[in-house]
Amino acid sequence: MTRTVYINGQYMAETDAKVSIFDRGFLFADAVYEVTAVLEGKLIDNAGHIARLTRSCQELGIPMPISAEELTEIQRSLIEKNQLHEGGVYLQLTRGSEGDRDFSYSEDIKPTLVLFTQARELIHSPVAKKGIKVLSMDDIRWRRRDIKTTSLLPACMAKHIAHQAGCDDVWLIEQGYVTEGGSSNAYIVTDEGKIITRPLSNDILSGITRASLMLLAKDCGLVIEERAFTIEEAYQATEAFVSSATTFIWPVTHIDDHEIGDGKPGPIAAKLREIYIKTSLEMAE
Ligand code: PDD
User: Fold this and answer.
1) Which residues form a coiled coil (predicted)?
2) CA of 88 to the centre of ligand 1 (A)
3) Rounded to two decimals, what is the model's pTM?
């Protein structure tokens, strides 16, 4: 089926949507993006995603071409036009094009806005039951990982190496400490049942799923400690898991050559996933 996509004020068939070869998103990855999950045709945690987009734009000086309300309107229209039941809406905003390649840019350059839907099984994803194997790797990304830019080559390369090694994803390591997953936030559970995750800073993306998860965990009496943890501590953890808009919560059963806990998906990750999905469905817009 040919999708209907949105580009700079227009809805059109995906095959007709074109962006200039001089677009700075294409030439310099001078662009920000967001992925909002969709369940039962409704947006999940979208206010958080739009707020983070606004912040990413502010940090880079990319003007938001339309309001948050208008963006949400487009997201909803695309869901409807493509009859999306479950999956996500991808949104990308680039600084735009000035008709040539030039490192510098003017202030009044007009941004390029693109949105499209992606059908994906989220609730009954087999991976959520089975868990994932991750490979640890040096985090070679830039120092502003709090901004959600499309400079994703390090993540693509790391994931590719992990796939070649028979793993599902990566956990990135800086100075011995886990920063985050290739496209997710990372968590471990200690012997006492405490959830550990790295505190927010420029070192990691401030996950929208992470924010919701932390509130839900507290509500059901789970203790979360925000501190950096080493990869060795992760090897010894009782459980490990990741969170993102494309996975919600997925258990991690193996890290490098180590089985986590008994090598099976753990109960805390399963419980959090269940509560997250239930609450998200209740609050979906
Ligand atoms: N990635 N950390 C990184 C590096 C990410 O790329 C993502 C999300 C997250 C989780 O953020 P959130 O919970 O807001 O999705 C953490 C998206 C899903 C992607 O690149 O497709």
Assistant:
1) none
2) 12
3) 0.98
